[in-house]
Automatic annotation (TrEMBL):
Molecular-function annotations in GO: carboxylic ester hydrolase activity; palmitoyl-(protein) hydrolase activity
PANTHER family linked to this entry: LYSOPHOSPHOLIPASE-LIKE PROTEIN 1, LYSOPHOSPHOLIPASE-RELATED
GO cellular component: cytoplasm
Protein name as catalogued: palmitoyl-protein hydrolase
């Protein structure tokens, strides 16, 4: 499976932190950039933070009767009750780790990286931060859920025994979402917090399965708190 990357680089100086923003099923990184630009009226810029918008590989997707789609992994159905397709999900892990490792080679440590996403991208972000790499600065998920038998829960059960710190979580969910009901997102959040994850669940009134401007603004502000500019990057004050 091939994975294309769309990198948005800081315009003024070398970056000291990274945001990886994962799109939903059937979308692309470029389309996510355009969606955010439409909502904000500008790009999601931070100055010292590089933003990476990967595009999922094109592969058969069972909920579309096996048609080819840009999806991070296959699943049997869009339902919290079905068994997680762990074989398919595991095939994307190396690609996500490659992005994180590439940032490490550029001098960006895991605790200076936030991973988040919309819908399926949010689910992959949860796998990334609470199964693959538990040293990240933070995870956010928008309109997302985990299957009830998710390997993420098994992984966190083991971490709970060691008392290790975990990335902070921020989840957003539309109250009127009919594709991924609010209850699925809240159940996922509650399960994660019982397993040691700390964070916040934010219901969005009058919101379907979509991103909203207020949601992106809140994510932007939260990321700046998680990944502040380093002292040497701050303007000199007389």
């Amino acid at each position: 499976m091939s994975l294309m990357l769309r990198n948005i680089h800081p315009t003024s100086r070398a970056h000291s932190a990274t945001l990886i923003f994962l799109h939903g099923s059937g979308d692309t990184g470029s389309n996510l950039v355009q969606w955010i630009r439409f909502l904000l009226g500008r790009d999601m810029d931070f100055g010292h933070i590089k933003v990476i918008y990967p595009t999922a590989p094109l592969q058969p997707y069972t909920p579309l009767s096996g048609e080819q789609s840009n999806v991070w992994f296959d699943r049997r159905a869009i339902s919290i009750d079905v068994l997680e397709n762990r074989k398919s999900i595991s095939q994307i892990y190396d690609k996500i780790n490659d992005i994180i490792n590439n940032e490490a080679e550029l001098g960006i440590t895991s605790n200076r990286i936030v991973v988040g996403g919309f819908s399926m991208g949010g689910a992959l972000a949860l796998h990334t931060g609470f199964h693959l790499n538990k040293n990240l600065a933070g995870i956010f998920a928008c309109s997302s859920f985990l299957n009830r038998d998710s390997i993420v829960y098994e992984s966190l059960s083991q971490t709970l025994e060691t008392g290790s710190d975990l990335p902070e979580l921020r989840m957003y969910h539309g109250v009127k979402d009919t594709l991924v009901p609010l209850d699925w997102g809240k159940e996922t959040f509650d399960n994660l917090t019982r397993l040691g994850v700390k964070g916040k669940f934010i219901p969005l009134d009058n919101t379907l399965h979509e991103l909203k401007k207020r949601e992106i603004v809140d994510i932007h502000d939260w990321i700046l708190k998680k990944l502040p500019a380093l002292p040497e990057e701050l303007p000199n004050k007389l």
